[in-house]
Amino acid sequence: MRNLENPVKLESVDRALQLLVLLREGEVLSVKSAGERLGVAPSTAHRLLGTLVARDFATQDRERRYRAGSQLVPQGESRFSVNQLRQVARPALQRLYGDVVDTVQLMVLAGSHVRFIDGIESEAALHVKARMGDLMPAYCSAGGKAILAELSNVELEQLYRGGLTPWPTARVHTLPALKRQLAAVRKTGYAVNTEETEQGVSGLGVCIRDATGKPMAAFTTAIPTARYQKGKVPDHVKALREAASATEAELLTGASEPH
Length: 259
Description:
Layout: H1 7-24, H2 31-38, H3 42-54, E1 58-60, E2 66-68, H4 82-100, E3 103-110, E4 113-120, E5 135-137, H5 142-148, H6 153-159, H7 175-188, E6 191-194, E7 201-209, E8 215-224, H8 233-256
Antiparallel strand pairs: 1-2, 3-4, 3-8, 4-5, 6-7, 7-8
Helix pairs in contact: 2-3, 4-8
């Protein structure tokens, strides 16, 4: 059999792989920016991106920009957009705030980072401001660690193949150290952040799973360390778990409804 190698097709594969790497690393691409990164015409970039969308390696947002699709998301495919998740989780987030009376937040995994997508800020004089849209390394955040603890070692190694992203207040700096910390999270069922995201802030995090049982988000508390009381941890963990369970039930109902 002759080797019918086609340089044009191989070049197309290489370009598609370049796009996959960019998307997997959390980049958001327009057709124009994708073309510029690849050094090709917008029409070529559009065809490549369209192919990735068709295979669930990319998805388009309302502004027609391309983001990582379900095939590239480590925690597994989710049938819910960020906006849908925010809407479904909001009642549970409000109940959680009522239970802990401190800043509470909702976050999702974005590559090796977490993105804050909703929150309710405490009205106490000394409180932690709720973040919105911010990104930070997942391994520093209680919610991020709660999600990461649900991943396999193979998934973690792939996610951190280039090492842990440096962060000024991080307590762990290597993947082996992170794995040991996540092993403890798996045993307790919740994660702790003690001034790892920023000085003076402590908190707890519990993972939210989708209808297939895979991690998709997390609820967290964010409390000034000066007011953080270890004696309240069991009550706060209970409230976090109840909020996560309520959200999971709503997600399960939504996943079972006909579309």
